[in-house]
Task: inverse folding
């Protein structure tokens, strides 16, 4: 519902079991939190290409317009 409510201009991976986050070392397997280092207060944004490789990574990206611009740079 959050994705629909925000009307995001890009696709969001819903990783409820944190498998992708753990695989990309954004989450710790032994933690309940999604972000591996929540004390830093950062929300990383990652663009994953069609081959499963990281095309872009920003350590702290909270604004939709910033994320959209990052995605468009990868196209």
Result:
């Amino acid at each position: 519902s959050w994705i629909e409510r925000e009307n995001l201009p890009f696709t969001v991976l819903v990783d409820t079991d944190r498998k992708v986050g753990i695989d990309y070392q954004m989450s710790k397997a032994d933690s309940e939190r999604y972000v591996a280092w929540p004390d830093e207060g950062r929300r990383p944004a990652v663009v994953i290409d069609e081959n499963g490789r990281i095309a872009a990574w920003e350590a702290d990206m909270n604004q939709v317009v910033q994320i959209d611009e990052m995605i468009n740079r990868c196209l």
User: Anything to note?
Assistant: The chain has a mean pLDDT of 83.
